[in-house]
Design brief:
Two copies of one chain form a homodimer. Helices cover 41% and strands 21% of the residues of chain A. The first copy, chain A, contains 18 helices and 16 strands. In chain A, strands 14-13-12-11-7-10-9-8-16 form a nine-stranded mixed β-sheet, with helices on both faces. Chain A has a seven-stranded mixed β-sheet with strand order 3-2-1-4-5-6-15, sandwiched between helices. At the A-B interface, α7, α8, β12, β13 and β14 of A face α7, α8, β12, β13 and β14 of B.
Chain lengths: 486, 486
């Protein structure tokens, strides 16, 4: 991972009045200013269709920071008010992009230097292709001096809707920006525990020796939410659980936890190994989808989205196999759902010497209570030789005192630095779509969609999916034990 | 480990007025009565030279129990007063043993059953040979019916003074009691964490894979005490640190942590593997002792024992090698000392992939704060790729609520049951003496004896012993981290 100093930059945020900017980007910038992690020459340009003022943005920042339980530092807010400028644009109008370019040129003139230009598209993905075309048309796809200052595009998922649309989007973006210039944000990858997966795996020989099919019996990755879709009807109705979490975040987590050791810990080498892993996932045969994938919809969802025929899944579970020497024979179960019993994202490896004797597990807890838990067998004290499962754990909170940077702070700093380690490549995106394509197709024509109670662990079909591979979802147990550490 | 029910028994304690009986044996019996772990037909016979009364013993028990912070249960004390009887004896007089036999016969008559007869020699080892001869002469080396009730001999270390004297003692005892009848008590082996070593090693595949010279860089076993010899001048002057702890307890710990997996977890199979391990320790060449063994004496020791020429070591450290496929090339460092900086007994395995990259360790903490700690590398939070050592731990106290049985309770129950798993065999004792014999010889003729400050970590020569194998004693670090968990 590179350690380049952060160069002068202008961060242009499309959608400055939107939810993401208010909840994540602007507060993250506040904290980065506070930590003095931003370059000396730095400016923020907020693009808005509906109009806003710098003062309004500053008040949003103040509110957000104070909701973290911190009193906002007026000096930082004053400084931010000076470096933010608002540009009102009709995003479909090419002339407005020329005007945007003039604004950026003017900022650079005032600083007296060429600055990297970052365009953060915090707006719906449908608009991406059009906007990047117009950015390129206005020559905003390169910095003010070729080869010195760079232009970078930051985009949020979804990166397509299926394999074909992802391919199309990638091609469209590539007519304007090269792959090197595109930063696909996966904030899961920027979480501390996620970043720690590679460190843990490759810097700790004690655990490395057990990391293959000789000892790992199965791998389970869970992203469970208690909340429902929270009013995001339009987005969710065209996405669903499989696309929203499994195809994107959970495949990335799977790749980190199962990929081979890269030759060095640089961005390119890591992406190469992640891609190799994703490409090693055994293709799913069309007529086997029902055996390895389960979907579900929580009760009341159709009323919530006001569509009595909605076939959108709020729960999805899949069982994959990895066809390489390390993992052949080790089922990988992934599941996600809304309206479940707990909020928890975690990766669990279960170890055993002989089938049926699963006595150890290792869990990376991504959220909440970030940390690592190993369950092991210990002799019960006293006049007995019985064993009992006990836990060893390492919690970030206990070992590292102080406020930990939010994932979006890390995303912004890495994009400013030009470090692409924590961003998904187009090849990874395509490989991920390729894996789920047969499931998407089967579900698009099937009429089967089990429902489940809100507050449960999803449809009983998911339990069977695990049972058929002689596996039990671990959540009840894991959750209880994490509670102990709280 | 067998689960035989405890049969009727008479426990005869030689040295009932001694320190061990007052501090350990009688209080342990109190707690075993309380826990209803003793057989219905059970009697205690206290042998004394100097005379005492049952009432005096009961008061000692009450005092000891109350010093544990528990109020003594009068009903249990009353019951104990009924089952204890005192026999005054001249231990050199054969007739007194006949009188003892009559007492035991009388107890059995009153219970109307044959009872196993256990003889616990809680007296100095020099007297053992003589006493067992007289026990045998009085036919106390067998139960009242051959093959049904058994006679067992329980002895405390030291089991000899060197190889020759140990051999002699074993032969002397064997003229009166067979090997099967002799229970050599090592209370270290009866501690929960020690008992857990085999469970941990063989029931947890996650760690099993790393348990050999491909990943273990070295093994360190420490038994450190803050206290000095506490007035036990005569005992210590003829023992010293090497005999007192390394040759006995620490070699047993080494065997448990490095032995091959026994075919089953029964006493015989475990002892077979322990012996094989002890016999695989590379013999120490006479002219290499200075390279692999260090002794020391704390400052002020000679004044304490009133001998300005005392050559008794209060600190000893040795570096051994195990010549088998699993451990070839892995140094095993053992050290013990009195008057050191901390009280701690622990076993640490250090893991590394490449020499110089020791990034993991696993520590069995025998006392205090019994538990297991794994140190590992985690990514520091924030905008860095730096790593930091963090710890995962499992503490008995946190995972198992309630008072845990003292090691002597376990010793007594196992001896009553006839389970020899936690007792040292004569072959193990001889193999242990064989290892240290060249060191004992070299030290008996050398005039070199470094001193060290009380409250330090021993003589600097011990640091060099580790350094020469590119090892650093871990104590400072480990102790600090255990403190965190307290």
């Amino acid at each position: 991972m590179t350690k380049t100093p952060i160069e002068s930059a202008i961060l242009t945020i499309f959608g400055i009045t939107g939810d993401l900017a208010a909840r994540k980007l602007l507060p993250s910038l506040y904290y980065l200013f506070q930590a003095e992690l931003l370059p000396k020459n730095f400016a923020i340009v907020g693009v808005t269709r509906s109009g806003t003022t710098v003062d309004k943005l500053i008040e949003k920042i103040r509110t957000s920071v104070e909701s973290d339980g911190v009193s906002a530092d007026q000096a930082i807010l004053d400084h931010m008010a000076k470096v933010i400028r608002i540009v009102e644009m009709d995003l479909t109008n090419a002339e407005d992009y020329t005007r945007l370019k003039k604004e950026l040129d003017a900022v650079e003139d005032s600083h007296g230097v060429c600055m990297n230009r970052l365009f953060y598209l915090a707006i719906p993905a449908q608009t991406f292709a059009h906007i990047v075309g117009l950015l390129a048309h206005a020559e905003l796809n390169s910095g003010c001096q070729h080869g010195k200052a760079e232009s970078r595009l930051l985009i949020e998922k979804p990166f397509g809707y299926d394999l074909a649309s992802a391919q199309e989007l990638i091609e469209q973006l590539n007519t304007a920006f090269s792959e090197e210039q595109i930063y696909r944000i996966d904030h899961y990858l920027a979480k501390e525990t996620t970043q720690n997966i590679l460190t843990f795996r490759f810097a700790n020989p004690l655990f490395k020796a057990a990391w293959d099919n000789s000892l790992v019996s199965h791998i389970m990755i869970t992203a469970a939410e208690k909340i429902g879709i929270e009013g995001r009807v339009a987005f969710y109705e065209q996405t669903g659980a499989l696309r929203d979490l499994i195809q994107s975040h959970l495949f990335q987590l799977m790749a980190l936890v199962t990929m081979e050791e890269p030759k060095e810990l640089g961005s390119d080498a890591i992406h190469r190994e992640k891609l190799r892993l994703l490409e090693a996932v055994e293709p799913i045969h069309a007529d086997k989808v029902a055996n390895i994938a389960v979907r579900g919809q929580y009760e009341g969802y159709r009323e919530e989205v006001a569509d009595p025929h909605s076939m959108t899944e709020t729960y999805a579970a899949v069982r994959l196999a990895i066809d390489n020497d390390r993992w052949r024979g080790v089922p990988v179960l992934l599941r996600t759902g809304k309206g479940l019993a707990e909020k928890a994202t975690e990766i669990t490896l279960v170890f055993c010497e002989k089938p049926g004797a699963e006595t150890n597990s290792l869990t990376f807890r991504i959220q909440p209570n970030e940390g690592i838990v190993v369950s092991l067998q210990a002799k019960k004290p006293g006049f007995t030789d019985e064993m009992q499962e006990v836990q060893m754990d390492f919690l970030y909170r206990n070992s590292f005192v102080g406020i930990q940077p939010d994932a979006y702070q890390r995303v912004l700093v890495d994009a400013l630095k030009g470090d692409k380690t924590l961003f998904a490549t187009s090849e990874e995106v395509l490989a991920s779509w390729r894996i789920v394509e047969p499931i998407l197709h089967a579900w698009s024509i099937s009429k089967e969609l089990p429902t489940y109670e809100i507050g449960s662990w999803g449809p009983s079909e998911a339990t069977n999916l695990a049972h058929n591979a002689h596996i039990q979802w671990p959540m009840d147990k894991i959750t209880k034990n994490f509670m102990r550490s709280m």
